[in-house]
Amino acid sequence: MPSTHLAFHVHVVFSTKNREQWLAPTLRPRVHEFMGGILKSENVFPHMIGGMGDHVHALISLRATHCLADVAQRMKSVSSRWIHEELRLAGFSWQEGYGAFSVSPSHLERVARYIQNQEKHHRVKSFQEEYIEMLQAGMVSYDERHLW
User: Fold this and answer.
1) How confident is the model over 110-127, as pLDDT tens digits?
2) What are phi and psi for residue 47, nearest 5 degrees?
3) Contact 58, 39 (CB under 8 A)
4) For 1-21, what is the mean pLDDT?
5) Edge-to-edge strand order for the sheet containing 45-52?
6) Which residues pair with 51 in a beta bridge?
């Protein structure tokens, strides 16, 4: 085959350090928009970015040349520096690690709506409950001692 064809869609999730509520509702749109800019500068397509005060969800599409670990690291490090400098949140940091779950093209809209409705979703479920459900649905093995 003379060219590469790829449908690599990923739902990436990561939290603030110790799941502290750093991202006030008034700040979230700016943070999410900035993260979208980071992804675009890396030639990654951001379908949807959202979250709550203690975590972020990003639905992204990668190219064949991307390394997911590098994309996640750039998104976290560049946004952290920007949050310190622009939003003046000196103690802010992201938790180490992230979750990443492949998404079928037929489920992109459903996952985007899920991310868009985070506030409604978290009225009844904590981030910890949500994340464990995502791990289980993705059949990802984990040790709860190392989640938080």
Assistant:
1) 999 999 999 898 898 989
2) -70, -45
3) yes
4) 92
5) 45-52, 55-62, 8-15, 99-103
6) 56
Q: Which two tokens stand for residue 6?
A: 């790829």
Number of alpha helices (DSSP H) and beta strands (DSSP E) in the chain: 5, 4
3-state SS string over 25-74?
CCCHHHHHHHHHHHHHHCCCEEEEEEEECCEEEEEEEECCCCCHHHHHHH
| Structure tokens, 140 | 């990802």
* Res 143: pLDDT: 87
**DSSP summary character for residue 20:** -
Using the predicted structure, report yes or no on whether residue 142 has a pLDDT greater than 90: no
Read off the pLDDT of residues 74-105 as tens digits, 9 standing for 90 and up. Answer: 999 999 999 999 999 999 999 999 999 999 99
CA 129 to chain centre: 16
What residues form DSSP beta bridges with 57?
13, 50
